[in-house]
Amino acid sequence: MNELTSIPEAGTSIFDRPEDFYQRGLDMVETGKAAVALGLMRKLAKERPDDGLLGELAGLITTHGVPGFHHGMLFDAPRNAAYRAAIERFAPGKRVLDIGTGSGLLAMMAARAGAAHVVACEANPLIAATAREIIAANGLADRITVHAAHSSQLDRTRDLGGGAELIVSEIFHDNLVGEGVLPSLDHARSDLGVPDAVFLPGRASVRVALVDTTLFEDDGAIGMVEGFDLAPFNRHVSRTRNIGADSQRLRLRSAPVEPFAFDFAAQASLATQRQNICELASDGGHVTGVVQWLRLEFADDIAYENLPGANGPSHWTLRYTPLRCPRDTQAGDMIRIGGWHDARSMVIWEE
What is the domain extent for residue 227? Predict the structure, then answer.
């Protein structure tokens, strides 16, 4: 039975029963039939283009399980420009692997730059199906192969012609590690690339600095609410807050330091758990907390950094951790900051 035309009752269309349409679409997405689900959406657009309810349900289906960061990421012009400059320099003539291709943008940049061939992988089958559609529409289907799979499922010989010479990735979280970049790139280096494979970015680091902000002045601990003591609920509320990189309500109070840096092309395995203590020297003035951002380095002269206030909006947000006691400082006062990370999480605190 054709999944696009099968109907719950003879003589009716699946579009006549919105609840059936919605459930059918979700079932397709959740069972790996993403291409079929997208076919159903195209059929809906053709047959019922003006049905508001079905249109909204279609939106729920096509965004099911899709992270919300893609929109902001694709509009992050400095990020796109840094990747383009690096890809145009290193991709010509290379076998390229794009890990976590999303829309296929970086893969298409590599193909346009003259890569010998590009293999792109995307673990979300719905996104992978759309990437194939976008790549074909841009005339690059013969130069880019998209796998609806996590990079750990690829094989160096079967899928990469003996190994990728250039490995491109943009699977970085606000805290750098949260999307699993460390195990993914460790595996790519040991199992998918040639011995001297180039990584873009080749190095990434976390930067922290002292900061003064009034953003969270009223964001105190939970206590009495409507006459009830809710203090135990504080254990479920993170002290870390996210702030837009273009916020005008941050004042840096120190030069940055790097508690953690990662060299993706190094032969040694990436450390998936570390702890570090560093000292930040105040420039003077009121200090309320520590702000954290990331830096991606592609070459000596190509880098991206969502430095607070420097590059305008960034799809990566800053992470703010308050000090135990906000305080006035004199120039040169030292504040000790601790940091810890594993393969998925990172925390910063005041020693």
Answer: 205-350
